[in-house]
Please model this.
Amino acid sequence: MSIKHGLLALLREEPKYGYQLRGEFEAATGATWPLNIGQVYTTLTRLERDGLVRAASTEADGRSTYEITEAGRTELDSWFQTPVTRESRPRDELAIKLALALAVPGVDVSAVVQRQRSATMQSLQELTRLKRGDRDGEISWRLVLESMIFAAEAEIRWLDHCESILLRHRGRPAKQPQVHEADDTTEVTR
Amino acid sequence: MSAILDIRGLTRTHGKGEQAVHALRGVDLSVAPGELVAVMGPSGSGKSTLLTCAGGLDQPTRGEVLVDGNDLVTLSRAGVAALRRRRIGYVFQDFNLIPALTAVENVALPLELDGTRSRTARKYAEAALQEVGIGELADRFPDDMSGGQRQRVAIARAIVGDRRLLLADEPTGALDSETGEAVLQLLRDRCDQHGIAGVLVTHEARHAAWADRVVYLRDGVLVGQAGPLADPDQLLQGSH
Model:
């Protein structure tokens, strides 16, 4: 997702001022992606340079409204039609961290996994609380929130999976024999 | 505020000597009024044993389990049973409703077993069904209800009367994600609005996230926790 396409989307219906675009962008994404006004104008300047928007009118105080061009509409449509790739997501850092933790002797990988799980769970709890506090909120904000909730959940499931692979890979610590059998019995007798 | 559930050094061992199997090994867990705590962990980590011990359905090998100040371990069998009927509510994955009884009869049952007169019990049961949003289904049989409605009946049964502790074992396991969320919302509201202490066992992170605190069990030991949470005002900063 880029600010560029976000602004084009907001200009689709009618020309708008820069500060207006900033406000609407934040409202649509539930302020999960705060923009400063400088970013908005830098982006508009680039869009203008590329022929995707043009200045529509200029007020006495020098502020301009911007409108989308035909090329801008084409660009926007193709953005909406293109799936987002999973490349260069922040999670890659996590994957690399775990891989290195495994490769470097003396690192307690299970502890690394557990710390990450607690941290991700904490943000999942915070997102869930935002959702709870906003039962009748705007649908676009709700969708952004749900997307972050499911992404956090996926990361936790991935961590669980990593941990079970690690356990199988390394064998269980010597001081904790039989535990698996142990609890299977409990579950059955329950 | 003093805890409603206070577990100290809880150990549960099945069998003896070489064959001994350690389901729980020295677990401490305290749940305050109004607090919802989620317990996560792989299958076989001791989650369900923890819940059955907290609910007086299983006896620990060592340790204390205090519910509203009463130690379930030293209490007589009759004392535990009475506490279970009056103070502890249990919600299971498979609802455990009696098919031959209507919704309101299912909910009234623990009160009647405890000696409440039938008409009074029914009144309380109707109020509980009302609270979980299915007052109009009081005279339906479980078989004529959807999964979500049945789980609501089970929750009504778990909160009827003056319950202090709500124990839920995978309560959303048999429900689709939308209905599951509604059930969590309900559990959450009970804790927030009625000061009940809740313990939720789940393997789904998205559901555990409804809790104030999430604790992790591994091989019968608590290995970590997430929460309690920060001030709500600070949430949006840094969430991107």
